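--- STAGE predict ---
source: upstream dedup step, 1 unique chain passed
mode: sequence only
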Amino acid sequence: MSVRTVNVLFAILALIALAGVVTWTAAALASRVGMPGIRDRLWSRTAEVALPLAALVAVVATVGSLYESEVAGFTPCALCWYQRTAMYPLAVILPIAAVRQDRRVRSYALPLTLIGALISAYHYQLEWFPEQASPACTLDAPCTVVWVRELGFVSIPFMALCGFLAVAWLTWIAGQRPAQDALRANDTFP
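--- STAGE serialize ---
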C-alpha cells in the first residue's frame, strides 16, 4: 500500500473522529437549550463503547504517527514530539482502562488530551500561517513543513487534533456513564 493511500485512510479516520466530536458537541449544546433527550439518548448509547473507542483512537493515532515517521520517512518536528508525548501514554492507559472498565480514567486522560489538542491546534494554524515565529521550530525539523495535506486541509496536526478531541469526548462520556445507567433504568426508548 502506498504512503498516499495510507494518508488518505488516516485522513478519513480523522474526519470520522471529527464527525463524532461535532455530534457529541451538538448533543451537549442541545441539552443546554432545552432538549436534553437528544444528549441522553446519544450519550447512553455511546457510553457503552466509549472507553474501547477512546483506546482504539489513541492506538490508531500512535500507530499513525509511527507510520508517518518510520515508514513514510517524515521527520517529526518539536511540536509533533510534544503531541506524541501527550498521545503515546493514552495508547497504554486507555486500553487498560477499557479492559478494567475504569471510567475514572478521565481524571488523568483529559489533561493529556486537552494539552495535546492545544498543541495540535497551534501546530495546525502554524502550517497555514508559516510566517509566524515559533520557538519550537528548528531548521533541521521545521514545524511549518506540511508533509500531508489530504482533501486540501487534513494534515498530520489536524489528524492529531481530531484524535485528541475524540478521546477527550469519549473519556468524558465514559465518566458520565453512572448517571446514564440510572437514567436508562427508568427510560422507555429502545
